[in-house]
């Protein structure tokens, strides 16, 4: 049987950990931590699908662990089941109010633990799918505007914090209205899918993030690259679209489908914000159209 779901057990009592491990290890991958501190360190480097935690532990308590997990965007969505010796309604209510999915009192029945774990993992799986669908563009299946905005905000903050460079490239397909009018909307859709996948492939070597941000425009975020290297990535994207050789008989600038790119490169924090970065890239794209340049770069 393939054990796909990963469960972390956090309990200072070795016996409790062994009992839970014996209950669940046939079906799931189990990791154990003997304190909340150890669990936080473990979770910084490892992903899990569900956490089972005790409440009363030396050092950080289970409640505080819950609070920290909910405050961290990498861990807030992990379901937590509390297993506690306390059968006080107040303790149970407190745990549930703080975001625990469930509360089981000790001594517990292994059958009940198994059933509840199974149910919570099923809910988590559905939530993960919904989260994915809400972040993916339905046509091209690459990240959508929502995920782009989130990623740009996160990366902008991280780059400013670590004095790392950030480049934002906006990519527009040239004369796409004419393409649609000439070849039809369905052919336009096919073309958008091809362009999205080509850009995605082209940018992999640069560890870039690509998204569709509206109708025929795409965005790429690159971090830790020099302006020259980001420009090379832009050139690589141009080449990948040229290689598609999609005929565009009504384009006044090229016999094949072509793109224009506007890029802003922020070498170090310029005291602005991500909206300003976006505006600068948009202005670079506008200039690329206006002067019929393949790429226009604004360095900050
Ligand atoms: N097939 C298809 N067309 C789309 C989709 N989303 C937007 N479009 C079309 O893309 C065209 C974009 O037109 P414009 O924004 O004027 O761009 P353009 O014709 O490329 O003009 P320039 O930006 O000046 O090169 C419009 O005709 C939209 O209807 C889509 O999902 N599928």
Automatic annotation (TrEMBL):
Highest taxon above the source species: Bacteria
Positions of the GGDEF domain: 164-300
A Pfam family that the UniProt record links to this protein: Response_reg
4-aspartylphosphate PTM sites in chain numbering: 54
Keywords: Phosphoprotein
EC category: transferase
GO BP of this protein: cell adhesion involved in single-species biofilm formation; negative regulation of bacterial-type flagellum-dependent cell motility; phosphorelay signal transduction system
Domain Response regulatory: 6-121
InterPro entries (UniProt xref): CheY-like_superfamily, Diguanylate_Cyclase, GGDEF_dom, Nucleotide_cyclase, Rev_trsase/Diguanyl_cyclase, Sig_transdc_resp-reg_receiver
CDD domains according to UniProt: GGDEF (cd01949)
Name assigned to this protein: diguanylate cyclase
Organism, as annotated: Pseudoalteromonas aurantia
